[in-house]
Structure formats: C-alpha cells, structure tokens
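From the shared-data thread, chain only:
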Amino acid sequence: MVVVTGSHGRLGRALVNALGSANVAVLGLARPDIDLDDPATAARVVRTPDLELVIHCAAWTDVDGCARQPDLAQRRNGHAVGELASSCAAAGVRMLLISTNEVFDGQRQDSSGYAETDEVRPINSYGRSKLLGEQLARAAFADAGRATDLAIIRTAWLFGPPGDDFPARIVAAADRLPEGAGLSVVADEIGTPTYAPDLAAVIVQLVTSRGAYGVLHVVNDGRASRAEYAQHVLGRCRPARAVLPISGHEYTRASTPPAWAVLDNRRARALGVVMRPWQQALDDYLDSICPS
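Structure, as tokens:
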C-alpha cells in the first residue's frame, strides 16, 4: 500500500490517479486524516494496513503566508515532516518527500541549473521551512540505519489541475484589465514550469522500480522567466493581451523568491527519467482551460 498525503492538492491528486492507473494500491489522505498542525497524525498514518511507502505531498505552500508566519511554516513544513519521517523509519516504511527549488538562494551566475549536490541556502521562510523538513527526514532515517529508504524530490513552479495555478491566475488577471491594457509580469525570476501529471508519472516510475533514494531534482525540460511563462499562456488563451515585463522590485509581495530557480535533473536522467519541454506540457494543459 502507498499512502499519498495532501491528496486534495495539485500533485497529490495527480499521484493518486497515476498510481491507480499503474495498478498500485493507493490511499490518499487529506485533512483531517493528515493534519500538519497535529503531531499525532504521523502515528495514525503509519498504522495504515500493509503500508510500504508514504509519499508526503502535504505542505504549507503559501509562500507569502510562510513569510508572514515563519514559525508556523517551520512547524508545518519542517517539524511535521520530522514527526512523519521518524514514524515511518521506526515502522520500516519507505518515504518520499516532495521539496522545492526554493532551498537555493538563486544567485547562481553560470546559467546552469542547480544540481542535487549544490549547496542549499534558502533566502525566504518557505525555503527554510522546506529545508528543515529535508534535514529532519534525513536525520530520522539515518538514525534508524535506513537512509536508502528515503527519497527527496525537489521540483518547481507546479501547474495543472485542479486550477488556481499560475496559468489560471494569469488568464484571470488579464480578464480583469481594461480593454487594450497589458499585463505586468516579473521578468527577472527564472525557473521551470512543471506539469503535475508529468511529475506524478515520474514518481510512479521511480517508486515502482525502487531505484530512487537520496535527493533528486525533477522538473520539465527548459527554463523561462515568469514573463515568458505568462506570454506563452496569453499567446494561447488571450492573444490580444500583451505582457509587460517588470522587475521583481516593482512587484510587492511578502516573500522574496530566488531569482534563478532552475533545477538540473541530472540524477533523475541517470535513472532513465526523461521530461518533456515545459512548453509542450503547458500546451496540453491549456487545451483544458483555454480550448481553441
């Protein structure tokens, strides 16, 4: 049995569907069965009959909310992960933790994506809380002598069903503008849009082969600025709307994202993982939200 936490979220839903399609016995857990504010959750999860693997997608992903309440972010994305990892390690259950590109500082200058072995140095509360979760999970499995039963997958800029993602918000923002007005979007934040169903398919591939452990980066191929990402969306969904590139300093928000948020999939590629370009994945998604 595989348990997926956060099963009502973007990646959690995609994983439950992908595992079911692969004929893997799967149980999706969401609130109140998995509650990041309740330490007793972890013990309840590992009591699932015939449990072999927990894929922990549940997280507080409101990046600006994490900036406003850093202690709460540490509890939900850090200490709650440690509790679950300790319970899994003690029960002999494998764990796969979903993490983020925001564990890096975004200051890389050589145009290369961050590798799994690069130094982590988060610059915001969300990144620090997710890194704490990684560290506590690694410590729990190492202390139990079962380090190879833990995998950590870092990803970035997830989009896809059930909506309320970057493409959907860009379309909605464009629709609120007066006729003829352009949409201002940050041009100096660079990353890789990643389609949740594509990531889910890779996770199923990795967990069923049992070849994944340690840290792996998994994102769709390529890179884009937020402005380029928005232009691709509007070019398909609202072609009359222009994107007006601005700097991050002109866009006020509580959190500061890493300017260079590109990940390199090198370890995943060595395991046979091939991710299609983000533009192809986005076009498939836009077929559902902006049909021609």
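The CA atoms of residues 70 and 198 lie 31 Å apart.
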